[in-house]
Target: C2H2-type domain-containing protein
Amino acid sequence: MLNLVLYFLEKPFGCTRCGKFYKQKSNLNRHIRFECGKPPSFQCSYCGRKFHQQCNYKTHMRAFHGKKPFSCPNCRRSYKRKYDLSRHLRYECGNRPFVCTACGKSYKRKMHLVSHMRYECGKEPAFRCEFCSKLFHQKSNCKKHMRMHLTDQSQNYE
Model:
């Protein structure tokens, strides 16, 4: 009995025609308008599953049958979700939207542009490799470079 009370508290909006319950009144209204007592309007041509709403049909097609309707105009990669295509265009597909106004160098991520402007643009390199004297604008790049020298030396001793 307690479970039944909790169920009605969780889903208080009920359909008087079929008895289905919903958490939100808007979902009940959608159910009455498009679903209750009406045959499904959309059917999957692959598996035969039927849907009352086109958005559920499209989601099913992308999730279960590999449909990837969102294609990149540059490289023709396809994605199931519009968000994934947007991310691809912004960070992966040669698009570098963050441009330094001083030198014109461009970056895929804003944080890289900020780092460039803070440590590199118009500044002399301040960090020198102890092994080959190569200069670097950023300490982290210099350290990474010096580790390469150390791994090269350790391989020579083996």
Remarks:
- The chain has a mean pLDDT of 82.
- The two ends are 75 Å apart (CA to CA).
- The helical segments are 2-10, 25-35, 54-64, 82-91, 110-119, 139-157.
- The longest helix spans residues 139-157.
